[in-house]
Amino acid sequence: MSNKRRKPSAWPSIISLSSVMFMLGLLGFSIVGFQGLSEHLMESSSIDLYFVDGSTEAQVRKIEQTLLKEPWIKTTKFISPKDGVKEMSEKYDPEFLSYAESIALPLSLEIYPKSDYANIQFIDRESKHLRTFPLVEDVIYQRNWVESMTMNVHRLQIGFAAAAIISLIVAIALIQSATRLSIFANRFLIKSMQLVGATNKFIVRPYVMAFVRHSLIAIPIAMGLLLIIFYGLPYIFQDFAIINDFTKHIGVMALFVICISVSIFGLILAVFGSWLSTRRYLRTKIENLY
Fold it and tell me: pLDDT of 197-244, one tens digit each?
């Protein structure tokens, strides 16, 4: 009865490659989603301009058109006294509506800055400039909120950068371990081929191609899991609805770029890891293989 050596399973390396690509993809999705979310939050804080009594809508609209030419302004919103009463009653107290009927709210204009300019130093400077506009009585903005949001965004950006570096190191280590374990089972075959005169290129090529095939299997597995987490779970479980805050800021092009980048990176790591591990055994002495 002949005993045949079992061919080493490809699944450990496929699972390792899938895990690495999934982890890197998860990080990529999180960074892009957080960037979009932070921009949305920064741009949602308005600078409110209140105009003196007797100002007309035509005068305020003229100032609005002038402000829209500024490069730092994303959009503006004109607030009439009627709209102001409605917003304040919804924001503060429904009974405010009855009180507001006895007073006249001024015309106002909400200015929403672009995220690149939404920092406290710039807004402080522009607020002083806006007070010099004719008919402007007061300029109000949430200074503490903007300052807190800017600080938190910077902290999270540093955190994501550190996570990216750590993930990259872990990814390289995992793929290196997977390729070494897989090739370890064939170390005697590699050395035998070398002893009978096979060139290094001839020996290395099939192992590299094997890991290329493993990568091509791992890519759809990793990408499928990512899409399920980011676009499937929020529709199945309400507890995962917070993921929508990230995914709605990830465009189709960003999604495509992340998937392609992670796939190419995983493929390159697999090729490099298999080539490096195979070359290692080619340089190893026979007595050191045991």
Answer: 878 788 788 888 888 888 899 899 988 888 887 777 667 666 665 666
Q: How far apart are the first and last CA of the chain?
A: 27
Measured at the alpha carbon of residue 125, what is the angle toward residues 124 and 128, in degrees to the nearest 5? Answer: 90
**Long-range contacts of range 118-123, CB-CB < 8 Å, 24 or more positions apart?**
118/42, 118/43, 118/45, 118/146, 118/149, 118/150, 119/146, 119/150, 120/146, 120/147, 120/150, 122/72, 123/47
Neighbours of 74 (CB within 10 A): 15
Q: Domains along the chain? A: 11-40+149-288 (no CATH), 46-141 (3.30.70.3040)
Could you tell me the two tokens for 144?
């503490």
CB 59 within 8 A of CB 135: yes
pLDDT for res 221: 92
274, 10 contact by CB (below 8 A) = no
Local structure of residue 116 (DSSP, 8 states): G
Local structure of 114: helix, strand or coil: coil
CA distance 30 to 227: 13
Average pLDDT, the chain: 78
Give the pLDDT confidence of 135-183 residue by residue, as tens digits: 888 898 888 877 787 777 778 778 877 877 787 777 677 777 766 776 7
State the amino acid at position 146 in one-letter form.
Answer: V
